[in-house]
Write a structure and sequence with these properties.
This protein is mostly helical and 391 residues long. It has 18 helices and no strands. The protein starts with a helix and ends with a helix.
């Protein structure tokens, strides 16, 4: 117990220091968050979280103070591989299917098939990969993924401790502490970002640890527990899929239509949106932990599912800024042109464009003026009489 507290404090300070030290190299290498257009935010936070978690956990295992136990070492190694894949995605643009396949391969090495069975184990592999990518998508605003990760890590650690998996519980406690140290620099306005490296590492460890702690128990109840522990990530994915499908936009194209984005549209500040999302994660984690330990029955998960449905439908009605719209909502020039082309009906009558008024004087006519022509056409008698009368 004492070592767990010391390890958590060490991971917290180590992650905070590494996040600050790695900021300058990330800026020089151009490892920046592409979603930030106004500020250059380096993606050094994810690397700091991974290094701090691995360093403290491996030290505890090598010294014998907190041995990993069965499967925990393989879980940490697979999570490190997923973090490396996320780092590559941060440096170069990788398609989502490559990230999904790579994460699923890593998950296939850590699922306890002897306890889950092959069909449930295959389903667990897919679920772990989806949760890792969901946490990467949850990193859509400053502090959101880190806050949700801290809350979820404590819940999964409690589930592992209930199953007497002390090594796994210590690993998750160290992860929660490292994320807390990272949040010192990632709280709005952020100086560093988590990126795919840290987000996928966090989601993978949490999902795989939850599967390991729940393995060998009732499958139906286990499905509800896993859903409750990651309810916020599931709500964000469902909201984005629903919004983009109904709007006819590609599912994998980034856009400001996630949870924190819509909360900002309701008037919350960046810090307020982060606190709201983190607070929303707490009930699901609490219910999942209580159902796993047997304090609550499995039907309690239905309340979490109903809450997720209500939140998704409520935030779906909130208008999100989409490509082709300005900051305040009015369409840009490209959007107005596209809207005009769509609204052009076949009965529209073409109006000729008005020619600009020329400021250049027209050239003088080469023909004589009518006055001169009339004077020349007058006979000499008439002209003479007129001269006499006028004289």
């Amino acid at each position: 117990m004492l070592y767990g507290i010391v390890a958590a404090i060490t991971a917290l300070f180590l992650a905070a220091v590494l996040a600050a030290l790695l900021r300058a190299p990330a800026l020089r290498l151009g490892l920046l968050d592409r979603r930030q257009r106004q500020r250059r935010v380096p993606l050094s936070g994810g690397t700091a979280v991974v290094l701090a978690t691995c360093a403290v956990a491996v030290t505890g295992d090598r010294t014998g103070l907190a041995p990993f136990g069965e499967g925990t070492g393989a879980l940490l190694a697979a999570g490190t591989g997923v973090a490396a894949l996320g780092l590559v995605a941060d440096a170069w643009r990788l398609k989502t299917r490559f990230l999904l396949v790579g994460t699923a391969v890593a998950a296939a090495f850590v699922v306890p098939y002897a306890d889950t069975g092959v069909p449930a184990g295959v389903a667990a592999v897919g679920w772990i990969a989806c949760v890792a990518l969901a946490f990467r998508a949850l990193d859509h605003a400053e502090g959101v993924a880190g806050t949700v990760g801290v809350v979820t890590a404590f819940g999964v650690a409690a589930c592992a401790a209930a199953e007497v998996m002390e090594g796994l519980a210590v690993l998750l406690s160290v992860l929660a502490a490292a994320l807390t140290g990272f949040l010192v620099h990632n709280w709005p306005p952020a100086r560093v970002a988590l990126g795919g490296c840290g987000a996928m590492f966090t989601g993978f460890l949490l999902a795989a640890a939850a599967v390991t702690a729940r393995a060998g128990q009732d499958a139906a109840t286990g499905t509800g527990v896993l859903f409750a522990l990651t309810a916020v990530a599931a709500a964000d994915v469902v909201l984005v899929v629903l919004a983009r499908r109904t709007a006819g936009r590609p599912l994998l194209r980034r856009g400001p239509d996630h949870l924190a984005h819509r909360l900002r549209r309701l008037g919350l500040t960046p810090a307020g949106a982060t606190v709201a999302v983190g607070a929303a994660a707490f009930p699901g984690v609490l219910v999942g932990t209580l159902v796993h330990t047997g304090v609550l029955g499995a039907p309690a998960v239905l309340w979490i599912a109903g809450g997720v449905l209500v939140v998704v439908l409520a935030l779906w009605r909130v208008r999100a800024r989409v490509p082709g719209q300005g900051r305040g909502g009015p369409e840009t020039r490209a959007g107005r042109g596209a809207r005009a082309r769509q609204d052009l009906s076949p009965h529209h009558r073409h109006r000729p464009r008005r020619q600009p008024v020329s400021l250049v004087q027209p050239p003088r006519e080469s023909a004589e003026s009518p006055l001169r022509a009339s004077r020349r056409s007058v006979s000499p008698q008439v002209s003479g009489s007129l001269r006499v009368r006028n004289g």
